[in-house]
Amino acid sequence: MLMTTNKPPPVDDRDGMPEAEAAALYRLMTWLSPAFPVGAFSYSSGIEWAVEAGDVADAASLRDWLASMLADGSGFCDGVVLAHAHRAAASGDDAALCDIAELAAALVPSRERQLETSAQGRAFIDIARAAWPCEGLDQMIAACGGAIVYPVAVGLVSAAHAMPLAPTLHAFFHALASNWISAGARLIPLGQTDSQRVLAQLEPVVVATAKRATAAALDDLGSATFRADLASMRHETQYTRLFRS
């Protein structure tokens, strides 16, 4: 005779996750999800002009363009800024945090990219602070003294919630690459399977860039993706546009 019960089967504690670690993972997955309302879907970081100009025309050219942006362009620079903002916030160094916030805002190469990163940074902080209030976060925000760009916002909020830098940085890069691919998929256009192939092919680039960004000093900040920077500037006067950058 079969016996039934409403009691769940026993769970092996060895297969579980510490409560703090589970909470941190939950927040990272939420904050850096495409569903988190920072407006990332409305920006292309110049990819729209690259498609218009013919530089990006299919999955292979999109992958190459994004790999360069990640490893040698704004992706790497944002990762360095995030890492230093996280460390400054975690150590309570308000002066260093202010300097990093000012430097990050000053390094943005075009008007539309400035709008993109500052608007997303502001939205990220406002929503995270409203839904996940955290002791010390307001002081960190005040220490920045002005506009807070997106990677600085992610760095200081994750530090305020005592999240480790490494998973935060990898989640940030995943979100960045995913949003760029989403823009490319709408512009080329690209199918869902090809989009996921591009994301899979960028995995080693993300891992390597995160490793470099973690170890980099602020003096290592720099970009070699001139065409991508020009694309973000040319987009400002592009005749027809789907995206804000």
Automatic annotation (TrEMBL):
Keywords noted in UniProt: Chaperone, Cytoplasm, Nickel insertion
Molecular function as annotated in GO: nickel cation binding
Source superkingdom: Bacteria
Annotated Gene Ontology cellular component terms: cytoplasm
Any Pfam family: UreF
Chief location category: cytoplasm
Subcellular location: Cytoplasm
Family named by the database record: Belongs to the UreF family.
Self-association state and partner proteins as the record states: UreD, UreF and UreG form a complex that acts as a GTP-hydrolysis-dependent molecular chaperone, activating the urease apoprotein by helping to assemble the nickel containing metallocenter of UreC. The UreE protein probably delivers the nickel.
Function: Required for maturation of urease via the functional incorporation of the urease nickel metallocenter.
Protein name: Urease accessory protein UreF
Gene name as annotated: ureF
